[in-house]
Amino acid sequence: MNKRVRIILSVVGLLSLCLIVPNTEARPKFRKIFQTTYETQFAGKDFGIESCTICHDKVNNNLRPRNNYGDTLAELLPKKNTTDEATIQSALKDAEEKPSAIEGKTFGDLIREGRLPASK
Fold it and tell me: Who's near 37: CB < 8 A, 6+ residues apart?
């Protein structure tokens, strides 16, 4: 086999593997701790709290930009990739006292109402 054919087959093979490997989440621990912490407030809600849109805005199918709640949590966490559960829970609780995008409401007010904290 010549070199060009081997390169093409290698590229096709690698692309095939990319399609087989399941998607991963950037911060699955954050989402899981949010779900556990606030499961009673969101019980029975059809939008679910499993969404990345708790902390991110969805723009053109891209979850990259954070919403105001995500920005607040990022400020409260000591480092970008914090995985310590107690630290994340502390940041969630501290964020409850911060003002949301809705005038006169904190993130905690929205959560107690069963609304995602980034809701407008």
Answer: 89, 92
For Cα atoms 95, 99, 102, give the angle at the middle one, nearest 5 degrees.
125
Q: In 2-47, which residue ranges form alpha helices assigned H by DSSP? A: 3-20, 28-38
Token reading at 30: 């954050």
Greatest alpha-carbon pair distance for the chain in Å reads 70
CA distance 112 to 97: 12
What's the mean pLDDT when you consider all of the chain? 78
pLDDT of residue 87: 93
Helix axes 85-95, 28-38, angle to 10 degrees: 60
Single pTM value for the model: 0.69
C-alpha count within 13 angstroms, C-beta hemisphere, residue 94: 14
